[in-house]
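User: DUF4166 domain-containing protein. Structure?
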Amino acid sequence: MTSIFQRALGPDFDRLHPRIQRRFSVGLDSGEACVGRGVMDRVRHGGRWIRPFLALGATRHILVPRVGRDVPFTIENFPYRDSFGRETVTFVRTFAFPGRPQRFDATMVFSRERGCIVDYLGTHQHLATDLHVHADPEGALVIRSGEQRFREGPVNTHVPALIRGDAVVRESYDDQAQCFRVRVAVSNRYFGPLFGYEGTFQAEHIGVAAHGVRTDLRPVREEARA
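Assistant: Predicted structure:
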């Protein structure tokens, strides 16, 4: 079994920088989790008008309503099998703002049906987003979000472009500085920038069997629909 990112990237996986390859090999087969710790040079959002929407999302750990510079940052990627039998990897980001940290949670699976990674956002997996991935010429991993769907009970609807946040993520390894670099930008095609952050971190790989997966890293509710 290969990791969800190896399945999504196919031969393109071999074009990634070796350190990026290892980080995105996290899965049940590797038996490893990856914990990154560093500092985000900047955490930003699009303006005052967007803050109430970000604050609402933050109640379910979706995006972050605060801004800042030099914000301590942790990302926790742990593989596990969810209640539907799918290999799942956590992407739990913690921004240690003064006074109170903010979390931005996601869990990812590879969907054979959709032919891509599906990113479930937040603590309740209400939002499912297709992720399209490729290796760029510098060996960085580039992730672009695609179609989004909202699922809650009988509700099963596509999120229209008018209110959708489109994300572009680039994660690379800097050989000279010996650190990972990440840049995230979320925008709306009609209203412009919504949220983003950029900075650096170091990564540690740990055995899942020895450490397990903390309950607070897993979603409160799981959604079967991709």
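The chain has one domain: 4-208. The chain has a mean pLDDT of 96.
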